[in-house]
Every structure is written in C-alpha cells, then in structure tokens.
Amino acid sequence: MGFIVYPALDIRGGRVVRLAQGDYARETQYGDDPLPRASAFAATGAHWMHLVDLDAAKAGGYTLLSLLGDIARTTGLQVQTGGGVRSREDVARMLDAGAARVVVGSLAVREPETVIEWLSEFGGGRITVALDTRQDAEGAWQLPVHGWTEDAGVTLDALLPRYVAAGLRHLLCTDIARDGMLSGPNLELYAHLRALAPAVDVQASGGVRDAADVRAARQAGCAGAVLGRALLEGRLSLHDALAEAQPC
To answer: What positions does UniProt annotate as the active site of this protein (predicted)?
Structure first.
C-alpha cells in the first residue's frame, strides 16, 4: 500500500467543524454539508477519507452511522472513522454500516487488552489505533483521553510496543499541540514512531499546512496524512495533496 491522503471531516452537532488543539471551546464551523463534501473528495480523486464524531469523542456512543452509511454507499470512498468507540458492538455496528476501518482512541489507551482482543477478532486491517499525544515538560509523550481533556498516566513509548506485539497495522498519531494550528507536522515525532514501530503504517495528523508538508510526511516514512483545517480553508487543495502522495 502506498502513501494515503485522508481528507478529514470532524462532525459536531451535525456540522463540519475544527477544534484548535482539541479544545471544544475553540471551534470553527465550516457548514452543515458533510455528504457533499465527501462526494467532492471522491470526485477529486481521493480513495479514503477520515470521519470523526466529536460529540461521541467526548460523551461516548458513535452517532454518525447514518452519515457513514450514506458516504460509503454513494461516494465509493473507503471511510476510516471513529469517536466514542467504547465496545465491541460499537466496532461491529460501524463496520456493518460501511466503515473500512474503525478508529479507537481513548479506549485504546485506557483498556489496551480490550482493543488487542478486537485486533485479533476483526483483523489488523480493520482497526486503526489512535494514540494522540502531547509532550510534557520532561519531553515524554503523554496520551490524553476523553476528547484530549485528561491525561491517562501512560506514555506513548510504553504503550505502543504492546500493540506492535499484538499485530497492530495502522497507527494514527496526532501531535495535539499542532492540531488545527497550521504549524506543520511534527516530523521528529513521526521519525520516533518509525523507529519504535517500523512495521506499523503511521498516519501523520496535526499541523499539515500545504503540499510540501504532505511530501515531508511521506519522505519521513509515514504511510499517510490526515488533512483537516488547511483543506477546509482552501490553503491546500486536495488535488495538490494527492499529487504529493505519489512517489517521485
């Protein structure tokens, strides 16, 4: 599998939004048209997209099954989606509704043994573990949960090897400090992850501003990049991002 560009839609209250550094009080709204936007992604040439239920990320209970199904049926996109995944039944429902991969975040940090069981049951190709991270004053990469509102008391470096040993294939890692900030992806973080888990496909997320950032993520060894605010605000065209996904 080559480098994948994931145009992203974060949904809160039915609207397409972006949060700055995961802060629900720092929300920017971009309209209430997620399905047409997804269709436009497909028309531009995307094969995948990333769909996030921000309401569920905070409260639990994925609420986008209908939208997920509509996107999967009408656009031809493969949808990687998450937010509020708390149980095996959540995963099964999302896959049945049309998800190509289910993203598991907070639970993957709080209950790794549970998510490791899901990797075994559903297969490494159907689960993306999201270890969103924030560097503390000592330089350790902490793993906040509950919509990034509280630290879980475990580090990225301690937890990731457990998933590697369990057959993890897809890792989504957001540097929270850069999320929605248009400050560029944290290439040092992704180099660290590649060294820590060389067999895992790492998706860069947070800070991508332009086509050069997409190229840098690919050249850093990432398997994909999630595009959010820059795409929504027209700072980066999906066409240009997809072009950068191709090897020279």
So the answer is: 10, 132
Beta bridge mates, 201: 170
175, two tokens: 């540097």
Domain 4-244 has CATH 3.20.20.70: yes
Q: Is the pTM of this model over 0.90?
A: yes
CB contact at 8 A, 105 and 56: no
Active site residues per annotation: 10, 132
Q: What is the largest CA-CA distance in the chain?
A: 48
Instruction: Output the six-digit token pair for 236.
Output: 């980066």
Give dist(CA 64, CA 78) in Å, integer.
Answer: 15
Cα 117 to Cα 223: distance, rounded to the nearest angstrom:
24
User: What is the tens place of the pLDDT at every residue in 19-32?
Assistant: 888 788 899 999 99
Please tell me the chain's helix, strand, coil percentages from 3-state DSSP, rounded to the nearest 5. 40, 30, 35
Q: How far apart are CA 82 and CA 31, in angstroms?
A: 20
Q: Describe the crossing of helices 156-165 and 112-122 by its angle, rounded to 10 degrees.
A: 30
Residues in a beta bridge with 101: 80
The alpha-carbon radius of gyration of the chain (Å, integer) is 16
| Distance in angstroms (rounded) separating the CA atoms of residues 227 and 95 | 23
d(CA 147, CA 151): 10
